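Observation: inputs received (chain + nicotinamide-adenine-dinucleotide).
Thought: call the complex predictor directly.
Action: predict_structure
Action Input:
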Amino acid sequence: MAILITGGAGYIGSVTVELLEAEGLTPVVVDNLSRGYREAVPDHVPFYLGNIGDRALIRRILDEQPITACMHFSAFAYVGESVERPQDYFQNNFVETSALVDELIAADVKQFVFSSTCATYGEPRTVPIDENHEQHPTNPYGWSKLFVERMLSAYDAAYGLRFVALRYFNAAGATKACRERHDPETHLIPLALKAAAGEIPELLLFGDDYPTPDGTAIRDYIHVSDLARAHILAFRILKKAAKANS
Ligand SMILES: NC(=O)c1ccc[n+]([C@@H]2O[C@H](COP(=O)([O-])OP(=O)(O)OC[C@H]3O[C@@H](n4cnc5c(N)ncnc54)[C@H](O)[C@@H]3O)[C@@H](O)[C@H]2O)c1
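Observation:
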């Protein structure tokens, strides 16, 4: 039994690979390295270089590896870039995911954990945001992820694809083996560390009129290891449900 990890050479995917192995589970990675690093995946982990939307590649992986579930991390994930280049975001995040999911269903792989995002909520009407909060994204990145969520719901009802969509806020932190390494780096904590280490001249904090003591935003962070653990728990719930129904 193995789990297909899309985007496993990226930040959150590589930490999840590390934790899966620590729990005795078997990851198989597919990544096109557009934003990831080959060295983030240990050599002994099966690694396929390519696009998740490449149906022939996905079919080959499903043929060669005993895949029973998928954790889907691969995506483009910069809000600003999504506004400038929405075609890239709908293509990479939605169209390619649709092809991947088609191939999984065809191979009867029906357990799917999806990296969604808080960006699917848009401007919060109530805080804290609970998972029943209305979803109305304010940028193409959020929409591209919400489209996938809607597609997964329809496929659950029609084809029995069982899924968990985790709408995360900001991931932060590192493990001994893996770290955050985006290029360009836009995430606040690595930028703060770079500024403290003198690698960049200053740390720019955007927004100074929020209703907070100093006017800057209050943001939610989750440690990347906790996030990886959440994926594994989601996978275990899907696996348990599949067993109960078989
Ligand atoms: N980092 C965060 O704070 C955060 C917050 C909310 C949601 N997310 C979501 O979590 C997921 C992982 O985020 P991350 O920070 O690890 O990003 P990342 O850019 O470090 O990792 C994404 C990986 O996917 C790969 N990839 C992209 N498109 C691909 C494709 N078509 N085929 C194959 N590989 C492809 C990239 O090469 C990269 O290795 C993303 O889906 C993102 O939307 C991240």
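Thought: report the result.
Final Answer: Strands lie at 2-6, 27-31, 47-49, 67-72, 111-117, 162-168, 170-172, 221-223. The chain has one domain: 2-171+223-245.
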